[in-house]
Amino acid sequence: MVKQRNILRQITDIQAQAKRLIKTKAPLIEIEQFADYSNEIKSFLIKTLIMISCLIM
Questions:
Q1: Which domain of life does the UniProt lineage start with (predicted)?
Q2: Average pLDDT over residues 26-54
Q3: What DSSP designation does 29 have?
Q4: Which residues contact 34 (CB under 8 A, 6 or more apart)?
Q5: Which of 19, 22, 26, 51 could form a cystine bridge with 30, CB 3.0-4.6 A?
Q6: pLDDT score at 1
Q7: Tell me, what's the pLDDT at 57?
Q8: CA angle at 41 for the pair 14 and 54, rounded to the nearest 5°
Q9: Which residue in 36, 33, 44, 52 sits closest to 11, CA to CA?
Q10: Cα dist. 31→7, 10, 39, 44 in Å?
Q11: CA distances from 51 to 1, 8, 44, 54 (A)
Q12: With contact defined as beta carbons under 8 Å apart, do 14 and 6 qualify?
C-alpha cells in the first residue's frame, strides 16, 4: 500500500510540475530538464510496477 501511495504521489508531482511549466510559460531549457526528469521517473515507475506485479503473481 505504501508503494502505491508513493507512485501516485510521484505521478501527481509530475502533473503539477507540468501544469506549472505551462502556466508560467517556462523557458525551453527548463522544459527540456523537466522532460529528462519525467522520462527518468517514468522508467523508474515502469520498473517498479513490473516488479510489484511479479511479486503479486
A1: Bacteria
A2: 91
A3: H
A4: 17, 18, 21, 26
A5: 26
A6: 59
A7: 73
A8: 120
A9: 44
A10: 22, 18, 12, 20
A11: 14, 16, 11, 5
A12: no
Instruction: Return the percentage of the chain with pLDDT > 70, whole number.
Output: 95
What distance lies between CA 44 and its chain's CA centroid? 8
The phi and psi torsions of 11 (rounded to 5 degrees) equal -65, -45
Q: What is the mean pLDDT of the chain?
A: 89
Helix (H, G, I), strand (E, B) or coil at 21: helix
How far apart CA 25 and CA 21 sit, in angstroms, is: 6
CA–CA separation, 57 vs 44, rounded Å?
A: 20
Stated length of the chain:
57
Report phi then psi at 7, rounded to 5: -65, -45
Q: Which residue type does 54 have?
A: C
Bigger pLDDT: 24 or 2? Answer: 24
